[in-house]
Amino acid sequence: KVKAKPKHHKAMRWQDVPAFYADLQGRDAMAAKALMFTCLTGSRTSEVLGMQWGEIDFDESLWTCPAERMKGGVVHRVPLTDEMLAIIKPLQAMKSDYVFEGQKRHKPLSNMAMLMLLRRMQVEGVTVHGFRSTFRDWASEAANASREVAEMSLAHKVGSDVERAYARSDLLAKRRVLMERWSHYVTG
Known about the structure:
Blueprint: H1 17-25, H2 30-41, H3 45-49, E1 56-57, E2 62-65, E3 76-79, H4 82-88, H5 113-120, H6 130-141, H7 147-153, H8 161-166, H9 172-187
Antiparallel strand pairs: 1-2, 2-3
């Protein structure tokens, strides 16, 4: 049998994220706002770029990403921190279908926009998807988060089929605490 080796996305060290994020905050481009949101949520590019206003519950500070946009095919709830909300609330004024509108009206930002921004910033050896790994490393090394909470924050399946049959909670309250800590760390 031939076993395929997993291809790892190049990631930034979690220790370097606050300085990188501060640089992003000084930029007005929509790609910068999308990348800031992606870094804070630990979400995949397609999940963020496809985000529409109806998925966000501002009263509950919650983003519900529908199953059809999730890699695992399961609805994923993302707790939104004050920092995340500060990125997206001003974008409501654009009255677009998509939170992160691209060059064409009512169309999402290109899936290459954030990667091209990284290149323009001369950030070498890092991919957008790699920020998920950055978050995961921080959650383990700095936050001492439980494996289940960290993995569920990334919308990963945790445990065997039998374990998942009994563990039906998405640990939203615990993930909210972890995401608050991550946001505070990143924004310094």
